[in-house]
C-alpha cells in the first residue's frame, strides 16, 4: 500500500468541515493564538487572536484573507495553501449556487392551458425575467499574497517556515493600515475596527466609515478600559480590542424604562422621554460637542459635571449611576428643566 492510500489528503465539502481542517492545521502547528497573531503581523497581515478564535470557533466559511493570514503565520507550504484556498472557493461556489436556487421565484401556478384567461379583475403576473449573475469580484490581493507566501521563505529556529515578505493587500487590513485610525477615515482598516467593537459588545454600524458613532464607541471602550480617552484608535486600542473581554452587557430598553420609572415615580413618562431624546436610551452613548468636550451616557452628563461629581467616564456609562445622578439633578432643579433636548422629527 502506497503512502497516499495510507494517509489520504484531508478534504472538506462543507463550511464546517473546512473550518475543522483549519483547526487541525492550527493544532498541528503547536502555536498559540497569540503566537499566530504575532507571526501574522510580522508577515504583514492583521490577525488578532480574537479574530482567529472566532474563525476557528464557528462553522461558517471564513474570509479568504483571514485564511491566508493564518496559513502564512503557521508556515503552511505553498502547495498546501493553494490547495486549501481552492477547496474554499469550491465550497463558496456551492453555497452561492444553493442560495441562488433558494431565491428563485416560485413557478407560476396559473392554469398553463392555452385559451384560459386569468380570473376576472386579476391582472396576470408577468414572469420575472431571469437575472444575470454578476461576475464575482476579482480578488486582486490574493495572487500577490500567495506569491509572497510562495516566495522568499526562511526557516526559523523551530523549523517552521515563515514568510520573509508579503505583498500589499488592496482590500484587507495589513501593515499598510495607518498607525492611528481617527474620525473621517474610510476603508477596510476601519471596517475591521468596527467588527472588533461589535465583537466586544459595542454595537456600531459596520460600514467602513469612521464617523461619530464609531468615535463614540471608541471613547466608551477607552473609558471602560481605563485608557486615555481620545476617540482615536491607536495601537493600544487595537491590541486591547484583540485581547480584552467584552464590555459589560448593555441594559435593554425595557430594563432602562423599568428603572427610570422606579427612580422617577413622580414623572416616569417624562424621565423616559428625556433620556430617549438625549441618548436614544443607549447607556454607552458618548457625544463629542463642538468645543471637544464630551457628554456621557443616558442623561449625557458633561465632562465638567463629571469632574464636579468626582467620577470618570467609566462610571458615567454605568446606566444605574447615570439614572441616579439624574434623579439628584431633577430633585435640585425641581424638574427636567436642566436638560435641553429637541426630539428628532
From TrEMBL:
Pfam families: HTH_31, PG_binding_1. Residues 115-129 have a biased composition (Pro residues). Residues 95-136 are annotated as: Disordered. Residues 189-240 form the Peptidoglycan binding-like domain. This is Peptidoglycan-binding protein. It comes from Micromonospora tarensis.
Amino acid at each position: 500500500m502506497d503512502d497516499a492510500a495510507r494517509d489520504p489528503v484531508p478534504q472538506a465539502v462543507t463550511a464546517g468541515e473546512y473550518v475543522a481542517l483549519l483547526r487541525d492545521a492550527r493544532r498541528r502547528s503547536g502555536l498559540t493564538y497569540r503566537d499566530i497573531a504575532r507571526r501574522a503581523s510580522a508577515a504583514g497581515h492583521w490577525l488578532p487572536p480574537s479574530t482567529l478564535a472566532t474563525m476557528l470557533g464557528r462553522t461558517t466559511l471564513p474570509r479568504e484573507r483571514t485564511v491566508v493570514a493564518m496559513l502564512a503565520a503557521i508556515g503552511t507550504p505553498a502547495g498546501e495553501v493553494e490547495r486549501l484556498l481552492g477547496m474554499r472557493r469550491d465550497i463558496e461556489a456551492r453555497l452561492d449556487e444553493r442560495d441562488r436556487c433558494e431565491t428563485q421565484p416560485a413557478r407560476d401556478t396559473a392554469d398553463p392551458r392555452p385559451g384560459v384567461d386569468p380570473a376576472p379583475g386579476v391582472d396576470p403576473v408577468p414572469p420575472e425575467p431571469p437575472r444575470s449573475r454578476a461576475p464575482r469580484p476579482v480578488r486582486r490581493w490574493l495572487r500577490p499574497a500567495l506569491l509572497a507566501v510562495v516566495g522568499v521563505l526562511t526557516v526559523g529556529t523551530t523549523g517552521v517556515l515563515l514568510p520573509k515578505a508579503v505583498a500589499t493587500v488592496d482590500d484587507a487590513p495589513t501593515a499598510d493600515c495607518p498607525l492611528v485610525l481617527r474620525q473621517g477615515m474610510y476603508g477596510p482598516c476601519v471596517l475591521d475596527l468596527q467588527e472588533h467593537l461589535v465583537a466586544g459588545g459595542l454595537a456600531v454600524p459596520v460600514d467602513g466609515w469612521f464617523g461619530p458613532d464609531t468615535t463614540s464607541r471608541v471613547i466608551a471602550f477607552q473609558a471602560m478600559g481605563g485608557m486615555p480617552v481620545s476617540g482615536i484608535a491607536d495601537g493600544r486600542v487595537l491590541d486591547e480590542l484583540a485581547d480584552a473581554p467584552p464590555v459589560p452587557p448593555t441594559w435593554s430598553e425595557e430594563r432602562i424604562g423599568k428603572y427610570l420609572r422606579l427612580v422617577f415615580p413622580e414623572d416616569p413618562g417624562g424621565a423616559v422621554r428625556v433620556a430617549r431624546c438625549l441618548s436614544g436610551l443607549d447607556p454607552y452613548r458618548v457625544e463629542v460637542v463642538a468645543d471637544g468636550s464630551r457628554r456621557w451616557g443616558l442623561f449625557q452628563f458633561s465632562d465638567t459635571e463629571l469632574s464636579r461629581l468626582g467620577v470618570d467616564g467609566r462610571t458615567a456609562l454605568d446606566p444605574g449611576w447615570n439614572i441616579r445622578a439624574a434623579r439628584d439633578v431633577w430633585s435640585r432643579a425641581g424638574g427636567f428643566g436642566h436638560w435641553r433636548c429637541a426630539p428628532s422629527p
